[in-house]
Amino acid sequence: MERKTTRAQFIAVSLKLFQQKGFKATTMRDIAQELNIEAATIYNYIKSKQALLDGLLFEIANRFHEGLSNIESSSYAPVDKLKALVNLNVRLTVEYPYHVALLVNDWKHLEEPRRSAFVKNREEYEGMVRQIIQAGIKTGALRPMDAEIATYAVLSSIRWLFLSLIHI
Amino acid sequence: MERKTTRAQFIAVSLKLFQQKGFKATTMRDIAQELNIEAATIYNYIKSKQALLDGLLFEIANRFHEGLSNIESSSYAPVDKLKALVNLNVRLTVEYPYHVALLVNDWKHLEEPRRSAFVKNREEYEGMVRQIIQAGIKTGALRPMDAEIATYAVLSSIRWLFLSLIHI
DNA sequence: CCTACCGATCGGTAGG
DNA sequence: CCTACCGATCGGTAGG
Description:
elongated, Tetracycline Repressor, domain 2, DNA-binding, mainly alpha
């Protein structure tokens, strides 16, 4: 019988269990059992449970952040930037549904100072969205509206999409 | 110095901490510390941590369920039932934001067999919403659409509202 | 990838 | 509402 667990398998199983039971409720022994290895062996793949969360969270958060940065620095008109933003959200959510689930459900369990860094990253992201919306209002392409509320509306669509994808 | 913690205080503190840290990450000692009592004293107010979660979850879930049952058995037209449903959601979310937060974030931590009962309750709720939408389509009051997706759209609005209320 | 552990913490109980 | 605990579990380490 082949042993040898790959790092990719370890990550996939971790993400699946985090989504099913939540980060806090998932123990290293849960993950190990699913991989048919001992709990101690997990530390060949990762430094700590917290480092695992950190890596997964910033991996997907950075993809969102970088994607939106590229859109913002483009020469698109505001409305086209908005379309590109929705496209980015759909694409990332479809490609990384479990990462997005972790992002939405378990970012609170990041420990300081990384938690603050994460929140700052998210606030920058929201700020970029709001700026695009405000620019669209100023050019007249968007009817006057509360940019803050519109930002929430756009961002909450991410949550909705991943919920349908993962089927909760 | 007055001692004496009321049960209402205990519930309020528990809900606040569950929202801030999540159910699993909140320990009985966290709650006790916030109330300036010993952890053991908590068991004068509740039988177990699981029973606390159970009580809070079904309290709010039943309010949603009963509210929608009343709407469904009314003689309103489908579109007016839909309006009453949105009204119900807004009202309960504004009145019980922390209960709703717990409902959205921590229902997974209910243990069997109560977890299954909870999921069944939610599926009935979703089924009632879907039926109202389907009735509205049949009478022509609503344009033809995918009732399942429309149901998700209505229900996801709950999440969005409580997120704004609690400010995450 | 495993054996053999360990210190810390957690939910909870006994008995006032 | 407290003191005094306890069994179970958890993240993690040492040393192969």
